Amino acid sequence: MDRMIVGVRRGRYVISGVSGLVQRGVSLLAACCAAGAIAVAFNAGIATAQDAPASARSDIIGSENSEVYHTRDCPACKRILPQRRVSFVDEAAAQAAGRRKCKWCISTEEKEIKGNQRPPADKKSARRVSSDRPAAKRPPAAKESASSRPVRVKIVEARRGDTLRADNGETLRLIGISCPEPGAELGNKARESIEKRLKGRSVELLFDPAFAERDHLDSWRRRLVYLQLPDEADAAEALLEAGLAWVEPLSPGERAERYADTEAAARDAQRGIWSALKGPAGEREVKVFARDRTYHAPDCGHVASADDLKTMSVNSARAAGFHACTRYREK
């Protein structure tokens, strides 16, 4: 047997006959298996690292009534009340829930990418620049989003209870509420109430992430804001509490639930626009729209285009949570 092996392999690897050859073959096989296992584990590790989304390493936050999501460092995220926060494992989970990424987060990521792509500075050329040479003028900074930084303005006047004019030329609209127009019942009182507290004062504009995608502007280009009174009370909530405003039914703002509770308390106490009228004014027959919580005179132009009208008295409509339409005037 030894001579046969020597004849085939020329005797180079034959150490102890057949047993030596078997032992070497087993050793080579074990080494190959070990190398293959290491390669498989290495490739699996690379695949896992590539598959893991970057967002899994950071918290993704949203608001209950919003259609967007934010990273934790986003300014809008910091304004979300704790009880209204919704957390997601990653961006994929947020997108699966029907949400889209906040514009501020996208803008911040784009700036970081551009910053990382800047070529390194030439140190030799930098040393050749004279220290007494005047620095080059920087280009003007890009216009920031309304809510990316604190903004303070001085209130010039109140045009109505929910609409004010600031010294920077902007018209401010309180989020989530509406007041009667000047000339309507309690319309002048609502305007005078807010103007008395805020006219001539410097106030900080507070924004709601729900309106970030439209740059916090409504259809009339009015800036959508929350305002605080000198006693730190919410301006819109103060009007609701006094019965000088009502909640906009479809407002997506973060304070919508709080505002609804305040309005309900004012209705229960029959304050302001919710108070019962005496005599014929309270017994007057009106038409009510169920979908927008308004009541109208029978000859109001809004009535002609409605198909869900009901008839009741003014006092019954107020008790049920209906407020007068903008054209309604007491006789």
Describe the protein's architecture and organization:
With 331 residues, this protein is an alpha+beta fold. It is built from eleven helices and 15 strands. It has helices spanning 2-9, 17-51, 75-78, 91-96, 103-116, 123-128, 187-198, 235-241, 256-268, 280-283, 314-319; strands at residues 60-63, 68-71, 85-88, 100-101, 151-160, 163-166, 171-174, 177-178, 202-205, 223-225, 246-247, 285-289, 294-296, 309-313, 323-324. The strands form four sheets. The chain has a five-stranded mixed β-sheet. A four-stranded mixed β-sheet has the order 3-1-2-4. A four-stranded mixed β-sheet has the order 14-12-13-15. Helix 8 runs parallel beside helix 9 (256-268).
Q: Would you summarize the structure shown here?
A:
The chain has 331 residues and is an alpha+beta fold. It is 35% helix and 18% strand.
**Morphology call:** globular
Quantity of strands, as a count: 15
Helix content: 25-40%
Find the structural class using helix and strand composition.
Answer: alpha+beta
Task: Summarize model confidence as the mean pLDDT.
Answer: 76
Largest β sheet strand count, sense and barrel closure: 5 strands, mixed
What's the alpha carbon Rg, rounded to whole Å?
A: 36 Å
Distance between the termini: 126 Å
Largest beta sheet: strand ordering: 9-5-6-7-10
